[in-house]
Amino acid sequence: MKKLLFVAITALISFVAYAQNPCPYKYGANEEDSLKALEQITLFKTYVNQKQYAEAYVPWQYIITNCPCGWNGTFTYATTMLEQLIKVETNAERKERLIDTLLWSQTAYSTYHPTKCTYGKGLSWKAYYAMKYRGKDSTVEAQAFEDFVTAVELEKAEIQPAVWDMYFQLAVRQTQRTHDTTYVVDAYERATEYIDEAVVSSQAEYEASIPKFEELQKKFEENSIGKMAYDKEVSKLSKDTTNCLKTILNYNKMSAKLEKGFAPYAKGSVLLAIYEKKFQENRDNLPALKKMVSLMSTDSVCRSSQIYNDILVILYNDAPSGKIANFLGMLEFQKKNMDKAISYFNQAISLYTTNEEKAQPYYFIATIEFTRNSYSAARGHALDAARCNPKFGRPYILIGDMYRNSYNQFTNGGNGVIAGAVYWVAADKYNRAKAVDPSLTNECNKKLAALHKVDGKTLVENNLTPGQSYHVGGWINENTTVR
Questions:
Q1: What is the DSSP secondary-structure string of 384-413?
Q2: Does the pTM of the predicted model rise above 0.70?
């Protein structure tokens, strides 16, 4: 690799820190300088597209020194370029200077292009790369941890999954070194709250995009939009919805990873010991209380504590939300105060902003109606839950259990249905449950195996053969297949 010319990073940092206006001009002070800047930007683009990073580094130096505000791609593509150069550099001193440049570029992006990159975003990635390349240095680790906390509180739900991962790993290391569980608890609190916000936001965006496909199709069929414009809009919508689903998947994967990493520290007694003190210090700090209750809701010991109850009431009285109403509903459900629980669940449904969030309170209402033998009402709410979250299999298990338990209503030809036909419709629901949620397969298979069979004599007497369609009337009123 040709010898690289390196930037005087210290001078640039000083310039950024003290300059009132980091970009007195976009490209150059005069026409000649501007033409030179545009030429270097074009060169940089060309080399980066060709993955010739050593060559790209030369015009990049010119750009950040003379016209850093000229094009935001100067910084968006810098990370890939610099990481590749770091990877292949064999000289230790030059490698360290490249790392310096990489770290500088993360926050410099927000200085020169604040509409494209916030300070918190740049700081989060600076901390990320500091840990990636210099994480064994205790001084670097301490500064990175401080930067992560600052960035997270600035960016909240905008923090990316990879940054959450690195921040949490560092919090675990801090806890292991100091034996202070607060580090990892605080990190998990932040992650739980802000990742949930990111998922909800992406889910809402996804759900809002779906009707737009139908609107476009209608316009196309009515000839109010041409084929070219239609294809362009559909392509854009498809890309947007795909990105939303990808974002949700990535955050959910990270959430599961963090949950696994937090498990050794998630004992209820440990959390309560920390929160007893934090609660007294933060009674009027609503953001802090929200983080505490999100984490406590994942532990049965915490959920049964008075502190958990008190925090929920404070948050609900200040500003009711779907999440808090749902937590209160679950609390009343555990206390067997079913009417109060239903009231809170209904409020959660009205306050939640996405269908996926509403699935859980609908399901809990269905469960309560099931325990009261109000099967028609329970089935209605269970179907609402399944509609809100098509990947939610438990509502179908609940409906299957209702059908199975309805056997006595159909004995001796009751409702014009042969005895045992309810087991066929129950089997349909158990099969549907494991189809939409494969994690329920073992549970559903056990329920299927436990269903009684309709004997051959009964089938012959009713002129029925396996595979034939059969209608189960009464309150069930569904078609099924003879087994």
A1: HHHHH-TT--HHHHHHHHHHHHTGGGGGGG
A2: no
